[in-house]
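Allow me, if you will, to draw on your knowledge of protein folds for a short while. I have a record of one protein: its chain in single-letter code and its fold written as C-alpha cells. Could you please explain, in whatever detail you think fit, how the C-alpha cells follow from the sequence? The record follows directly beneath this note:
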Amino acid sequence: MENKVFHYDEPFKLESGQWLPEFDLAYTTYGKLNEAMDNVVWVCHAFTGNANPSDWWNGLIGEKRLYNPNEHFIICANILGSHYGSTNALSKNPISGEPYFHDFPFLSIRDVVSAIDLLRKSLNINKIQTLLGGSLGGQQAIEWAIIESDLIENLILFSTNAIHSPWGIAFNESQRMAIASDPTWTERHPKAGMNGMKVARSIALLSYRNYATYGRTQSRDEGQVDFFRANTYQNYQGEKLGKRFNAFSYWMLSKMFDSHDVGRGRGKVEESLKAITAKTLVIGISSDVLFPPEEQEFLAKHIPDAQYALIDSIYGHDGFLIEFEAMTETIKGWLK
C-alpha cells in the first residue's frame, strides 16, 4: 500500500460560494493499475474513517478478500475536512499563515466529491470499475455517480441515503451541542472541544448500535448496581476517538452529513437518482436505526435497475463495518 498526497494549488470554489485557496488530499493506493486501466476500485470512507480501507473494511478489502490488490487497483482518499492528512480546520491557511480553526469554510458532500474527482483526473483514470461507499461514504458515492454518470460501471451502496433525515440531523445536532458545551470549544487550539467531542461520540454510538446490540455486548451482571459495562463502554469509545480525531473535523463532517440532498438544485430527489447509469447494488442492515432499511429501499426503487439486499444483523448501523461475510456473499451473488 502506498500513501500519497494530491496537492491542488489553485483556488477551489465551494458550493456555498466560499473558497479554499488550495487543498491537499491524502490518499492510498493498493495494488497496481492494469494496462487496460479497467481494474479500479474506488472506496469512499465514512464519518471518522481514514484513507486506508484495509483498516476498517478488512473483511472486504485486502489479500484473500473480495477486493484484493492482486486483481484490483484500490484507491481511497481522505476527504476534505477530515483529520487524516487532507486539508481541514487544523491546516494552515496559506493566506493568514495560521490554522483555520473555526474559520474553516463549510463543506458539502458535493464539495468533497468535486475534490476527489480532481484527484481522479490527475491520475488519468477515466473509468471506475467499482465504486463502494457506506454511510457518509455512500452519500459521496451517490453524488459522484450522479455528477459523473459515465464514469462508474458498478456502484455498491451500504447503509446510506439520498437525503439526510430529520432523525439523523437531530442526532448530529445533539452531538454538536455536546461539543459547544465544552468551555474550550471557543479556543483557537488543536485540542479545543475535545471533552465535548468525547460526549458527542457516546451519543453517536447510540445511533450506530441499538437496544439488542447493547443487550448482547454490554450485558449487566446479576445483582449489579453500579459500574456497568455500558458505562465503561461509552467512556472508552469517547477516549478512543479523542486519541485519533479532533472536534473541528467532527463538527464539520457532521454538518456535511446534514447537508446531503441529491435533489438540491436538481428538482426532485427521485428524478436526480434516475441520472445514475451504473449497475447498482444497495445493501441495508435490518436493525439500522440511523439509516433504516426503508432509505436503502428508496434508493433501489429510484436508481434505474438497482438491486436491493437486506442483511439481517443485530449490529445496527455498524453492521456495514462488521457483517463482512454476509456482505461478501451478497456482492458475489449480485456480480453473477
Notes: The first strand starts at residue 2 and ends at 8. The radius of gyration is 20 Å. The CA atoms of residues 29 and 75 lie 5 Å apart. The mean pLDDT is 97.
